């Protein structure tokens, strides 16, 4: 019985504060939409792929031992690719108004599991510049790695290209709006229960019975101003009728 009453009380609280919950949720959605569409600058990403293959030698075309070595070298290559030795040359060749730290923050390097393919991704607010940086970084890395590691086993598998209608990777307005709606709803519900918990006033006969543990014998109905005027007009008519009868 207590669980039924508790559930009913929860529903009553939500119903009583439904306007507040809707207002907070809509506010969160509108703010998130405005920020995502009008304030945040779109960021684009371009990617190129590098293949860490066999070094040029007289070994067979397929050498499991050397492939495993190449896989282990990818971690080293990832560090080298984002090192000043590579990025300073990229900045110089492209005449970028960036330092090594700023350029490093734009570059992401990863590889597929058990794969000799390295993915080089660059993020920038200009999609063409992102593709240019990605291709130039891959080119510089391919040219410099033989000097650094004394091995020539890196080739460019695919160059970065700019699509005609390339979509930004962030922000994602609709995802942001959905998250804002959920967060706003949670805040609204939480605030509704908090206000209900802090509100210790007695508003209904049911609350009086629950608080005092005794039945309510009677209650005074609230008379609106309109009902009061109707009652006054009714009393005036009754008074005139009684006066006429006496006359």
From TrEMBL:
Give the bilayer topology: Multi-pass membrane protein
Q: Where is this region: Disordered?
A: 228-247
Matches recorded under InterPro entries: Bact_polysacc_biosynth/exp, GNVR, LPS_length_determ_N, P-loop_NTPase
* Entry annotated with the keyword Metal-binding: no
GO-annotated cellular components: plasma membrane
What are the GO MF terms of this UniProt record?
Answer: protein tyrosine kinase activity
Name all Polysaccharide chain length determinant N-terminal domain ranges: 3-94
* Subcellular localization(s) per the UniProt record: Cell membrane
Record-linked Pfam families: GNVR, Wzz
Give the transmembrane region(s): 20-40, 174-195
Q: Which UniProt keywords apply?
A: Cell membrane, Membrane, Transmembrane, Transmembrane helix
Query: Residue ranges of the Tyrosine-protein kinase G-rich domain?
Result: 142-195
Q: Which parts form a coiled-coil structure per UniProt? A: none
The similarity annotation says:
Belongs to the CpsC/CapA family.
Q: What protein am I looking at?
A: Capsular biosynthesis protein
What is the species of this protein?
Rossellomorea aquimaris
């Amino acid at each position: 019985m207590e669980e039924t009453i508790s559930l009913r009380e929860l529903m009553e609280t939500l119903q009583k504060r439904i306007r507040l919950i809707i207002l907070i949720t809509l506010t969160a959605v509108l703010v998130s939409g405005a920020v995502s569409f009008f304030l945040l600058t779109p960021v684009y990403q371009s990617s190129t792929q590098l293949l860490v293959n066999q070094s040029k030698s007289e070994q067979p075309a397929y050498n499991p031992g050397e492939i495993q070595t190449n896989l282990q070298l990818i971690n080293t290559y990832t560090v080298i690719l984002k090192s000043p030795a590579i990025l300073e040359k990229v900045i110089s060749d492209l005449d970028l108004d960036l330092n090594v730290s700023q350029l490093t923050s734009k570059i992401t390097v990863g590889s597929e599991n058990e794969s000799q393919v390295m993915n080089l991704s660059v993020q920038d607010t200009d999609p063409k510049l992102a593709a240019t940086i990605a291709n130039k970084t891959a080119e510089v890395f391919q040219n410099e790695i033989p000097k650094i590691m004394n091995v020539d086993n890196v080739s460019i598998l695919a160059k970065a290209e700019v699509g005609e209608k390339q979509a930004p990777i962030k922000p994602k307005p609709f995802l942001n709006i959905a998250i804002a709606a959920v967060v706003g709803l949670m805040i609204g519900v939480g605030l509704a229960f908090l206000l209900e918990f802090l509100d210790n006033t007695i508003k209904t006969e049911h609350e009086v019975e629950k608080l005092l543990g005794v039945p309510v014998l009677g209650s005074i109905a609230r008379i609106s101003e309109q009902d009061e005027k109707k009652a006054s007009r009714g009393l005036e008519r009754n008074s005139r009728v009684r006066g006429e009868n006496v006359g």
